[in-house]
Design brief:
- Helix content is 30%, strand content 19%.
- With 305 residues, it is an alpha/beta fold.
- The chain folds into two domains: 5-112, Enolase-like, domain 1, CATH 3.30.390.100; 118-304, Rossmann fold (3-Layer(aba) Sandwich).
- The strands form two sheets. It has an eight-stranded mixed sheet with strand order 4-11-10-9-8-5-6-7. Strands 1-2-3 form a three-stranded antiparallel sheet.
- Helix 1 (5-18) packs across helix 3.
Amino acid sequence: MGGSGILDETVAAIRDVLADEIGAITIERAVVGLFFTGVKLSTGQVGACATPIKTIPEAVCCPSSVHAMPFPGKMRDRPAASFLDEVRQPEGIRRAVGVATMNALAALCWERQPNPDVDLEMDVDAFDAARIGPGQLVVVVGAFVPFLRELKRRGQPYLVLEQDPATLKEDEMPFFRSAEQAPAVVPQADVLLVTGTTLLNDTLDAILAAARPDACKVVVGPTVGLVPDAYIRRHCDVLGGIQVTRPDEFLDTLAEGGSGYHFFGKSAHKIVLRSRRTDAGRKSGPARADGKTARDCLEFSNIID
C-alpha cells in the first residue's frame, strides 16, 4: 500500500486558502523531540507531527544526521512555505518537519476559513467520537496504546495491524496482523481506527481506499491537521487532532521528550473534526454490508494468518 495524495492535496488547499499571505509567514521556532516534532510560525500557530525515530538511519551519528534536517540550525526566520515541499521527502525528519509546518499553516487556515463540511469539537477523544457499537469489529492500524486498552476493557472484537509486533503486549498478540495483511484485514472493519503516523510512510491513502464504504473511518493523532478536505474526499468520518493553546510551553515539552501524557490539558487540547456528511446510521450497530459478523471476520483472519 502506498501513495501520498492526502499530503499533496492538503498542501494545495493551504496554498489556496492563504494565497498571497503565505509568502510573509516565517518559521519562529522548530523542535524535533523524541516523540513529536513541532513548528511555530511567526503568526503564532503551532503544528505537530510524530517524530519517525525508527525510520531514521541518519540518526546513528552526527556527520550523517546533519543531512536529516532541511536547514540544520538555520530554520528560524525562513519562509514557512519553503518547508511545504519537505512533505514529499522520503520518510524521516525532513518529512516530519514538513508535515509539522503544514499543520501549523493548517491551524492558521482554520482561523481564516473553517471548513463548512466538519464540526470542531473541543476536548473530545476520537475513540469516543467513533461511537463504536457492541459487536462491531474494530481494526486498529498502528499500536495505539490508549485505544487498545479501551477495546480490551470493553471486550470489543478487534484486530491490530502493526509493522513492529514488539510494540504489542502478550495478551494483544492473538489479535496482531502484520502490515502486509492490510489488504485482507482492512475491508473486515466495521470501525477503522488509523494513526496519523501512516501519513509518514505513505500508507494512509491505500488503507482508507481498502475500507468498506459503510465502515466508520477515524484518523487520529497530532500528525492530523486542521485542513480536512483531502480526508473528507476519502469519506473519513472523524479526525482526531490537537489544538495548541500555549505554543512555547508545548514546544518546550516536546524538546524535553514529552508526549501526549505531558501536554494534553496543559499546553494543548484534544479536538475532533466530525464530518457532517457522515451517515449516522452506519454506526448504529454491528450490521455489515456483506452480512458477516465480527466473529466471522475474526475466524477468517485466523485462516489468513
